[in-house]
Amino acid sequence: PAAPVPAGEKAAALEAIRLDIGDCTRCPLAYAGRHKIVFADGDPNARLMFVGEGPGADEDASGIPFVGKAGQLLNNMIQAMGVKREEVYIANIVKCRPPANRQPEPVEANTCSPFLLRQIDVVQPRVIVALGATAATYLLGVRQSLASLRGSWRDVRGAKAIVTYHPAFLLRDPAKKGEAWKDLQLVMAELGLTGPK
Ligand code: URA
User: Fold this and answer.
1) Position in ligand 1 atom list of the atom nearest CA 65
2) Does the Cβ of 170 fall within 6 Å of ligand 1?
3) Class of domain 7-191
4) Which of 61, 158, 166, 173 has its CA 20 to 30 Å from the CA of residue 70?
């Protein structure tokens, strides 16, 4: 794990990463119709972090991760755990929208994800939830079915990481919501969360 960053210095350390990214042209997504670079949202001192795949149309327009339909479901999941969205930290494997919301290409994810790892090293959350296969692949370095990755803790840069279904997948297959909720209950137990008051 990286050296601890004092709580009062995390916001500035994250801002420095954002400045390094600049008006990024390091990968093809810069030329694929991107409007805004979507850095992150939430509390630099969060104990809980969520990592998605990449911005969609709403995120590309607003510059904020998970603000569209999948974001609304993620907000509901966060609320059901008994935390506020402002108390967690939310980011993606890639910071620019892939055209037509396709999965990021390996060169795109591999170019962008070092910035995410730096964000993790600053925030140093206790728990990271990888949302979907792309987050699992690039955060955990494993290429397996999501079903086989669920339910067990892994180490990601000193944080305890767990994999669950992406909210966009859950919107298409609501029958899987119960399984996602089981995953989130493991996270709640780890963080001592008891749900909405
Ligand atoms: N899907 C993602 O993976 N990330 C977002 O920010 C929005 C939708």
Assistant:
1) 6
2) no
3) alpha beta
4) 158
